[in-house]
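Run log // design_07
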């Protein structure tokens, strides 16, 4: 009989020491792919003779495909084993990243980014779901935070490498380098999958047509009221945050004359703020709890974004980006933890729905921000994103406190 997530999580199978770090390396590649084009937008606008709003299509296309593909990879990971599907996803990313580097014109580059987003969708959400399967809930948040170090550093490196490439007008080379990296990561993951204990190579066999079964799994997730709250929250978080974040490097370049490579290195500090959270996550969780992490993290993130958008000098972005990274991961990591537990019996589908909502939110946010940038400029767009993030974080913190009170009441009655 096939194992399920619920069968494995309580027993916490003994894992090879490099199992989670290998996933973190895959997350690094995914993060680089996601944010590589942020600092390249002015270069694309010049090289292809288009506006900034049109250039942002390389980000929107990736995010849309990434978000929608979650609806496929979640159930597939449950059926064939999450770790194995991640390995195959990295192999596919090696091909699609290289295809981006070969694109002869902007429409084909957008199309290649669309396909690259679809293949990258197999990595981070399934890795989170796999960790949820094999690590008990009470120990999960620090483990998940350590895994996310890979994604955090990847997001930062992506903006930095994109900025350097834009300065050198050599935007194709990074895509080829990412392709080679993904090929090596894929080989490492396949080797690691063979070393996993049986309980960590979970599969779930289902009856009936695959499409109907997938629809049923997502319907089961959406029937949970708290799941709907988490999914709506992360959609709005993605929209408000990344609608602003995607234009930070462009804002620094156009308003203050900062070189794109320098702007990319400043945005890279966002990742170091996230790294600080990952290293201090156990302490922060004990001190603040989920309610405190979301509320305080949202306030910190919103203040930092507002500082970037409204500051009178470029150097404000240096501490602001660092602080924004800390605040974001305080908020987002707590949402991720809730995602791994909002439907344990369908964890792959639940986490995939979470990631889908997050990246579809990003796609909508970047598309709207790209249209607004032409009319009101980058500074007001970033400040507007800050206000939206603050509202989302405080609302979720309030709802999480209410849910904890209800859970405590149920436990007391029992």
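design_07 sequence
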């Amino acid at each position: 009989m096939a194992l399920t997530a619920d069968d494995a999580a309580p027993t916490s199978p003994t894992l090879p020491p490099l199992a989670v770090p290998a996933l973190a390396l895959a997350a690094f590649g995914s993060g680089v792919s996601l944010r590589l084009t942020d600092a390249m937008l002015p270069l694309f606008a010049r090289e292809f003779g288009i506006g900034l709003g049109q250039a942002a299509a390389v980000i929107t296309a990736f995010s849309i495909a990434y978000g929608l593909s979650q609806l496929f990879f979640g159930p597939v990971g449950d059926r064939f084993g999450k770790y194995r599907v991640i390995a195959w996803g990295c192999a596919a990313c090696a091909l699609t990243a290289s295809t981006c580097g070969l694109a002869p014109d902007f429409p084909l580059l957008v199309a290649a980014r669309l396909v690259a987003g679809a293949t990258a969708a197999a990595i981070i959400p399934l890795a989170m779901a796999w960790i949820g399967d094999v690590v008990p809930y009470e120990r999960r948040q620090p483990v998940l935070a350590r895994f996310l170090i890979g994604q955090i550093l990847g997001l930062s490196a992506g903006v930095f490498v994109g900025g350097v490439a834009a300065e050198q007008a050599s935007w194709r080379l990074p895509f080829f380098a990412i392709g080679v990296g993904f090929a090596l990561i894929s080989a490492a993951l396949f080797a690691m999958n063979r070393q996993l204990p049986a309980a960590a190579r979970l599969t779930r066999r289902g009856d009936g047509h695959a499409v109907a079964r997938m629809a049923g799994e997502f319907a089961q997730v959406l029937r949970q009221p708290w799941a709907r709250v988490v999914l709506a929250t992360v959609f709005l978080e993605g929209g408000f945050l990344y609608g602003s974040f995607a234009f930070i490097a462009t804002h620094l370049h156009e308003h203050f004359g900062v070189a794109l490579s320098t702007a990319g290195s400043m945005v890279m500090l966002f990742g170091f703020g996230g790294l600080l959270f990952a290293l201090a996550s156990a302490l922060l969780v004990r001190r603040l709890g989920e309610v405190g992490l979301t509320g305080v993290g949202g306030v910190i993130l919103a203040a930092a974004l507002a500082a970037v958008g409204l500051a009178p000098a470029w150097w404000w972005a240096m501490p602001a980006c660092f602080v924004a990274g800390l605040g974001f991961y305080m908020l987002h990591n707590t949402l991720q933890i809730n995602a791994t537990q909002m439907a344990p019996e369908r964890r792959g589908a639940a986490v995939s729905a979470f990631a889908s909502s997050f990246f579809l939110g990003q796609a909508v946010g970047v598309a709207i921000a790209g249209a607004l940038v032409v009319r009101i400029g980058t500074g007001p767009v970033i400040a507007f994103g800050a206000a939206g993030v603050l509202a989302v974080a405080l609302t979720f913190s309030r709802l999480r406190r209410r849910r904890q009170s209800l859970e405590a009441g149920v436990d007391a009655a029992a």
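The two ends are 34 Å apart (CA to CA).
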